[in-house]
Amino acid sequence: MDIITIVIIALGLAMDAFAVSITYGLTIQRPGINNALKVSLSFGLFQAFMPVIGWLAGLTLADSISNIDHWIAFGLLSFIGLRMICGSRKTENYKKAVDSLNNYVLLMLSIATSIDALAIGVTFAFLEITIATPVIIIGIVTFLLSLTGVFIGKKIGSYYGKKIEIIGGLILIGIGIKILIGHLFYM
Question: Which of 7, 32, 81, 180 could disulfide-link to 173, CB 3.0 to 4.6 Å?
Fold first, then answer.
């Protein structure tokens, strides 16, 4: 597989992480460079790590995961999205309790946005592709797009204020629905 194809795959895989990163930028109360790096590194590492898991699991796991991966992604993204929407209506004390930079929330979003990368890893194993180069490219592309997304979201959020959190929650739910519909109707 040539580098251009791998980059195109990486861009496709990174789109969900990019959209979620924009949402992070919209909702993070302190979207400085450290928090942007935290989000970007988490998404980049998971996007790079999941193909390795898929590659190692090979075709045995593909049948099991392909039947439920869309439901897992939909559930995780919808849960976080609903939590953000509910959080937008609560007091500042509640918002601090459900801080989107919470490691648990970031872990769930990182997993949800990288489940497709697991399936790509299985595909790489089936096609007998060496995993090192694709993993590095996927991780770097996702990191860079996620970092950019956080700052795009920060810029948009500064203009629209706190109510943008509802839009962020709806974006996450929309991504979950897109994943679900894509698997249910186009598989």
Answer: 81
Tokens encoding 113: 């946005």
Percent helix / strand / coil, the chain, rounded to 5: 85, 0, 15
Residues 6+ apart with CB under 8 A from 156: 22, 25, 26, 164
Find the helix or strand (DSSP H, E) in which 92 lies: helix 92-97
pLDDT tens-digit series, residues 147-175:
999 998 888 866 665 566 677 678 778 87
Q: Are 114 and 14 in contact (CB under 8 A)?
A: no
> What is the value of pTM for the model shown?
0.72
The upper half-sphere exposure of residue 42, i.e. CA atoms within 13 Å in the direction of its Cβ, equals 26
Q: What is the pLDDT of residue 97?
A: 37
Q: How many domains does the chain have?
A: 1
Helices (H), 127-163: 132-160
Residue 47 has pLDDT above 90, yes or no: yes
Residue 29 has pLDDT above 50, yes or no: yes
Instruction: Find out whether 153 and 23 touch, Cβ atoms under 8 Å.
Output: yes
84, 100 contact by CB (below 8 A): yes
CB 178 within 8 A of CB 70: no
Domain span at residue 56 reads 3-185
Output phi, psi for 127, to 5 deg: -85, 0
